[in-house]
Amino acid sequence: xxxxxxxxxxxxxxxxPTYNESDNIERLIESILRLYPDDMHILVIDDNSxxxxxxxxxxxxxxxxxxxxxxxxxxxxxxxxxxxGFRYALDHGYRLIIEIDADFSHDPExxxxxxxxxxxxxxxxGSRYMNNTVNVVNWPLSxxxxxxxxxxxxxxxxxxxxxxxxxxxxxxxAKVLTAIDLDRVHSQGYSFQIEMTYRAWKKGFRIAEIPIVxxxxxxxxxxxxxxxxxxxxxxxxxxxxxxxGGRL
Length: 248
Prior knowledge:
By secondary structure, the protein is of the alpha/beta class. The protein starts with 11 loop residues before the first strand and ends with a helix. The chain has eight helices and nine strands.
């Protein structure tokens, strides 16, 4: 895998966790490379997808030096995938680290305004719910109500001053990830996104949001589970308790 000093000239790393995303991953990689031909590298972290996702990415990486691939032996979850990607980014000197879903629910064209917003922020969130609007396409009403309710609940419990605390389209500066003790982050799914943003906020980093349109996947299956939902319910209280005890 390319790395080391060759990464130093490229400041941005896009991290894409995957599990059974063979229908989407090639198109997503091609779209990012086309839109940002010289600006960034892509790191795919695959959890041993039985549909051959890693093999597809390995084939692209063999011809395209901007692609990195890490494979894990089994399905270990979104949070641990991102933590692995964050550590990789810090070890290889990237300045900006972007989270993006593999299923095209996040438009790669929104990466550019996200990076521009980093001129005045340390963490930028692509928000579905800015200015009392809902920018979501193709979600069933039940999923929309769940997501919007989770955002309201999180803000009420924690005081986190963002419109979309469960959003998963983000850009971190390396200094944020360096300041957060990644070894103490253990949550997944919704709650992983909440926890990372909350820890950044409590450390005094500047957080900004940009409006995005979230489009539900058209192929493949959602990875959201009941366990993720229940974890998010209690996680916000755990974070609040840690903060009150000065242990974040």
